[in-house]
Design brief:
Distance between the termini of chain A: 35 Å
Largest sheet of chain B: 6 strands, antiparallel, barrel
Oligomer: heterodimer
Order of helices and strands of chain A: EHHHEHEHEHEHEEEHHEEHEHHEH
Shape of chain A: globular
Number of helices of chain B: 7
Strand order of the largest sheet of chain B: 12-15-14-13-16-17
Strand content of chain B: 25-35%
Strand content of chain A: 5-15%
Radius of gyration of chain B: 22 Å
Helix content of chain B: 10-25%
Structural class of chain B: alpha/beta
Chain lengths: 389, 363
Amino acid sequence: MEKRRSIYLDYAATTPLDSRVLSVMMPFFQEHFGNPSSIHIYGQRAEAALENSREIIARYMQCSPEEVIFTSCGSESDNLALRGVALAERQRRGANHILISPVEHHAVSRTAEQLAAYFGFELEYIPVDSSGIVSPEEVNKRLRPTTAIVSVIYANNEIGSLNPIAEIGEICRMQGVPFHTDAVQAAAYLPLDVNALNVDCLSIGAHKFYGPKGVGALFVRKATPMIPILTGGGQEFGFRAGTSNIPYIVGMAEAFRLAQEERNARIAYLTPLRDKLIHSVLETIPEVQLSGHPTNRLPNHASFVFRHVDGNALIAALDARGFCCSSGSACKTGNPEPSEVLTHIGFSPDWALGSLRVTLGIHTQPEDVHDFLATLPSVVETLRKTTTH
Amino acid sequence: MAGEERTVLVAMSGGVDSSVAAALLKQQGYQPIGVMLRLWSPHGESAYNRCCSPHSMNLARKVASILDIPFYVLDVQTKFHQIVVHEAFTQGYLSGLTPNPCLTCNRHIRWGFLFQYKQVLGAQWFATGHYARIDRDANGSPILKKAFDETKDQSYVLHVLNQELLQWTLFPIGHLRKEEVRTIAASLGLPVAQRKDSQDLCFLGNQDYRQFLTANVSEEIKPGAIISTDGKILGVHQGLPFYTIGQRKGLNIPSSRPFYVIRKDVQNNILIVGERCALDRHELLIENMNWISSKTPQNPFYAHIKIRYTSPAYPGEAIPLPDGRVRVKFEQPVSAVTPGQAAVLYQGDVCLGGGTIGANEEV
């Protein structure tokens, strides 16, 4: 039987491991398998690898190594920042107000909702414009002396829009309020100089930039009040207990280094492909809109809404033709709830349910985009004729 | 698209029948694409339609992964609720019928929507795990036949199909017995080999249909008189939709002999009851007749007629009427002919088609 060809256009969901990354990871599974907490030579080698990785990440973030906490993923980093800082700030100065944008990843929004529902915090949302972008002025209006933490996503995962993190950070700093940004999507393409960004906490996850799944990091500026949410041994300066996952941490550091070193080349390669994709879709398909900002967005990220199209059915139909994309409302159980992000930026359900996210990566070929653009219009047309509603 | 002539959309439910259907197609060299329909169910504790509960969905996904075939879930809740639950089921009961919503689902959802949807997934064929067979006549036109295992035959609920649909439909397990299907599933290591057959209507959850109607349209259901076939008032009914033709239990009529529901007079909200022999019918009228061959016979012919999913096929004469309806005259009287159910005609093991049993105003 012929094997289905598959073109991967879902790099915002995850990326394949870079083979250069894999090769630096390999020795740490079997040869240098030690626990960095051990005193003996195995432990020493592991610890050296751990601290070397921390230094690499700190160098590109322009921070000191002690400000980098390794975690198991971007979501854990978000959880640690929100919960760890909010609880510490309440203990320290009675702060009980949390300010987030309505277009946060669930790792932030669900954590903030839980802090409100179970821990007595007051949760407030900062309005966004129709591109899903937060205005610093709106943050300024809502900051209170009792604000425990502000969190605004750097680059949105669903619609790709970029937020003015440095300006928001500056406002928070003037008020003395800790500011966190989820940079999980941004890390692959944007500079992460934490001083230029004026952030106190910043989350990343390795698998979004050709590193392994199951490892992430949180930058925490020195003297930011924070308690651990995973308690136990004193690893990670007491902020995150658990035996360090050395091969994955080593892999993340190398992937991060490559992403930063090759950033300009990757951006230069992907931006024209992205723009071709966006323009072609908007020109060839009726009743379609771009979601998110047309230019102030991730260089590999195109997202659309198609009126009167079932987004899940669209993903299935594209997959059957060998194109692997995702949808803002993507849900493997087929339950169509319009995405909160799309609803929040003003799309009605008949648009928001028909969302499509196409994200490119370093392995994407111009022919892939060409083939995709040759296929999409007829698929959308067929779907509209075969409506489920 | 290359390979389309061997690509088949398989309706998968997470049950053993559709799982084995997909497995057999794969063995036969087709490229199956598994699709589960997300159907409607009432909100509340049993918020999942039985046909697509999280458990069923996980099992179907697992089977697809074992078979190494793609699997998708498609949402048709809005359409299913409107056409099957509201129009066919609820409105059917309110108008005095005893509807069979599975027929409506087959006609409008499975073969109405999903069959059309196969082109969206680039498939030419459509397959289900029904127990029925498709054969070809001398001209190569498809004919629908009973399953090899007559105790499992589902041709009754497939009588709504036509030539265009049967042309591109496959029933991969129609030639098998249930035990054989289970054996195949077990030999392939499919985790569904011992799953129980489904009963009851998928969207009812754990409630019976009366509870469902009470919860949804109680304001349209009113108590009324129970009257005997000879005109005596015997009691009070709780609302006509709660009764079905031939029902004996729950009438609460004090009497030495059992009474049966004979007829519903919807216009006057009266339930007519009588002795068992009053249920006997010598004939019935089929409305909305679908001839699977697409050719309407001109002359009366001898056939066997099923009047319920579980009824025997009774011998009788089928008389096509000029207005498209079909009059059926049974050889022997038949009990509990129920308006709203389907009457389906057979000759031998060939299913000729069927339609809805019309409201019976005699008595």
